[in-house]
Amino acid sequence: MMIPVRCFSCGQVVADRWEEYNKRVNVDKEPAEKVLDELHVQRYCCRRMLLGNVDLIDDIINYSRK
Q: Would residue 66 count as lying in a domain?
């Protein structure tokens, strides 16, 4: 997964929370709002970084140089 290390708007580190967020939302089926609150992600810009991230690495690998 290629999550940005820092928020593009405010510069706060967000990548260190990605694995816990992903596990709790996708595996444990907890609501994203509750998980973000418990991980102390308060700013809207930082929430956007986690909520809006799309895993494109599998698609990009198909177009690598040979």
A: no
Give tens-digit pLDDT for 11-54: 999 999 999 999 999 999 999 999 999 999 999 999 999 898 88
| 34 inside domain | yes
Choose among 35, 39, 45: nearest CA to 16: 39
Q: 35: which 2 tokens? A: 């998980």
Q: Which domain holds residue 44?
A: 15-61
Q: How many domains does the chain have?
A: 1
Give φ, ψ of 13 to 5 degrees.
-70, 125
Query: What confidence score (pLDDT) does residue 1 get?
Result: 63
